[in-house]
Design goal:
- This protein is mainly beta and about 525 residues long.
- Helices cover about 0% and strands about 40% of the residues.
- The chain has a 5-stranded mixed sheet, with no helix packed on it. It has a 5-stranded mixed sheet with strand order 9-8-7-6-36, with no helix packed on it.
- A hairpin with a 5-residue loop joins strand 38 (about 485-490) and strand 39.
- It is globular and about 60 Å long.
- Residues about 1-25 and about 70-80 have low confidence and may be disordered.
Length: about 525
């Protein structure tokens, strides 16, 4: 990398020492406290002052190939498996791990050279404190579920060598895993999806449920309820979809028209999962990944599904059925033999109050499918998504897979990392903060809630596994447009307590919940 993140803080946002914010506002707004404070289980950071507001956000690609360029390697099969991506560390010490064709690498974002983390291609990389020791571990899904203890926590001391999280009985390789307290005993269990790696002999594979026994020990258990095969799994997520107080699991299946469609498994609170049909979620797709987010700022979460021929955005109705609203929002079919969508980030990078959709659009596993442009859809004032990747500076020649959007340089604007099946990741760093406001919420995984500002209620979900193949810090970013004052923040844990932080509260800060 030619220059580090520190040198790119063109318009950095810093916590004002004197308590004065640069954000415009009336006398009442300026009288609101800007320092850090704690209220019950909620800690609120100091306001970050935007020193040089820009009329609009812009980004610069600061990536470098770190000496590796898979496009120079022979063989059309290289494009099929690489692309899993993980971001960990923190401000000033960010690191990324990514899966190449036959090696998984790790590197500092601030310009350090890449290192071989382990030999082998990972179908997913997951950052999670699985042993509850306060240090994030780094898990990799390949032929087994491997774990590097404290591997995602810089400078953490852990004498245990990398090992296997648990033995899982399956003829296929694990493709994704999602965490949630399925037995409601206070710690998170795991649901694992499987994908047969040999496309010529694919058969539907059953998922596995791993009970958390504590201390980083997990045991595979028989699944109570539905005993049918679960399909060619590519992405798994866990949340209380039907609002009955128990966590459910949603499986995104590839080749659903041939084997098994996507399916919602209803949880019973005792590790039991039973397939539910007829709810609009059981679509037969070539599904690569799923992302839950409030796309239309109505306080409710929609579900975006990445697919090989079309966009799918599902919205819940009062009757409990989910309906596809993608076409009505400008997301039209794109049937092509050149590429398909993979990773997805449905978020507000520029804080204008309208969500954007960033998609990895790597091709299939054929040479004819590369290179292709990625997609970066912006949402206009009419709620229509309009593609604008070129205007954001993305080139036409890419082969992207996983997508991560997080604020890497502390300016309040989200930066974007895109993995690539043929080279090392692309890193788009924002060049300055915007005049629009924002709020970030950090908390336990699965936390959901709303942020109210200017008469608009926006929903959020804290999850580190948005879309295919991506793992990132547990933070939700909510763009607020011109609204500098938040009237209320509602926080709900997946199964336990909820709390409300009443305003007025100045924006441009982080709310951290520790229930």
């Amino acid at each position: 990398m030619t220059r580090g993140l520190v040198g790119l803080l063109v318009a950095a946002c810093v916590s004002p020492e004197n308590g004065a914010a640069d954000a415009p506002g009336d006398t009442a707004t300026e009288a609101l406290r800007t320092d850090a404070f704690v209220e019950g289980t909620v800690a609120v950071s100091a306001v970050q002052a935007c020193e040089r507001p820009a009329a609009e956000a812009s980004w610069t690609d600061v990536s470098a190939p770190w000496g590796y360029d898979y496009a120079l390697l022979p063989g059309p099969s290289l494009a099929q498996n690489p692309g899993a991506l993980a971001l960990f560390g923190g401000s000033g010490a960010w690191r990324i791990a990514w899966a190449g064709p036959d090696t998984t690498y790790v590197a500092d974002l601030d310009g350090g050279a890449s290192e071989t983390w382990f030999e082998g291609t990972a179908s997913a990389l997951v950052v999670r404190d699985v042993d509850a020791d306060g240090a994030d571990d780094l898990l990799y899904l390949g032929s087994v579920i491997g774990v590097s203890w404290s591997g995602a926590t810089p400078d953490a001391a852990d004498a245990r060598p990398p090992g296997r999280l648990t033995r899982v009985r399956s003829p296929a390789s694990p493709s994704d895993m999602a965490f949630g307290d399925l037995d409601e005993d206070g710690d998170d269990d795991v649901v694992v999806a499987f994908n047969a790696m040999d496309h010529a002999s694919m058969e539907p594979m059953r998922a596995a449920v791993l009970r958390n026994d504590g201390g980083g020990s997990y045991t595979e258990i028989p699944v109570a309820g539905d005993t049918t095969l679960w399909g060619i799994g590519f992405d798994m997520s866990v949340r209380d979809v039907d609002g009955d107080g128990h966590l459910d699991a949603y499986l995104c299946n590839d080749r659903g028209r041939e084997f098994a469609p996507n399916v919602l498994f209803k949880g019973d609170g005792h590790l039991g999962l039973t397939a539910v049909a007829g709810n609009g979620l059981d679509l037969a797709l070539s599904c690569m990944g799923s992302t839950w987010a409030d796309a239309d700022a109505d306080g409710n979460l929609e579900l975006y599904l990445a697919e090989s021929t079309t966009h799918v955005m599902l919205e819940p109705a009062a009757d409990g059925v989910w309906y596809d609203v993608a076409a009505s929002r400008g997301l039209l079919p794109f049937d092509t033999d050149r590429f398909m969508t993979w990773g997805s980030a449905l978020t507000d990078t520029d804080n204008d109050g309208r969500m954007e959709l960033i998609l990895g659009t790597g091709g299939f596993w054929r040479d004819t499918s590369r290179p292709v442009p990625s997609w970066w859809f912006e949402q206009n004032q009419n709620g229509q998504f309009v593609e604008g990747a070129a205007a954001r500076g993305l080139p036409d020649a890419m082969h992207t897979r996983a997508v991560i959007a997080r604020d890497l340089n502390d300016d309040g604007v989200l930066d974007v990392i895109l993995s690539d099946g043929w080279r090392t990741p692309w890193i788009y760093l924002s060049e300055g903060c915007t005049a629009d406001a924002w709020l970030e919420i950090a908390g336990p995984p699965g936390t959901e809630g709303t942020v109210e500002a200017g008469g608009v209620t926006r929903g959020f979900r804290i999850a580190g596994d948005e879309g295919w193949g991506a793992s990132a810090p547990l933070v939700a970013h909510v763009g607020l447009g011109p609204q500098e004052v938040v009237s209320r923040v509602v926080l709900r844990s997946p199964l336990g307590p909820s709390t409300t932080l009443e305003g007025p509260l100045l924006a441009r800060r982080t709310v951290r919940w520790s229930p």
